[in-house]
DtxR family transcriptional regulator (Clostridium sulfidigenes), 120 residues
Amino acid sequence: MKIHESGENYLETILLLQRKKGSVRSIDIANELGYTKASISRAMGILKKAEFITMEQGGEITLTEKGMKKASEIYERHTLITKYLMDTLKVSKEVADGDACRIEHILSNEAFEKMKELYK
């Protein structure tokens, strides 16, 4: 199943919140992204159906192995693109972070692999 940009953003957010807080609930994602709880609930249903997350009775959201793999890939892209924009183009952290958030979803694997080679 192909995951859309918004789904990738949710997975990345879940990963970061999990690292920061240990456990994640829909309200945490809503607060982090500034979305309504209803929007988050719908998105979590889609991610659950695609087997990227599990949702416990108490509302805790956990990345599955598949979800963790995808979220980690997205986060790796985000951090490397941010670093590239800051180091090579000398843009501010805020601009680099915002641009990376958009670029990470459309950058080809070939270009990303070449970028990774620069930082080895």
Observations:
- The helical segments are 5-21, 26-33, 37-49, 65-89, 93-103, 109-118.
- The longest strand covers residues 60-63.
- Residues 24 and 61 are 5 Å apart (CA to CA).
- Strands lie at 24-25, 53-55, 60-63.
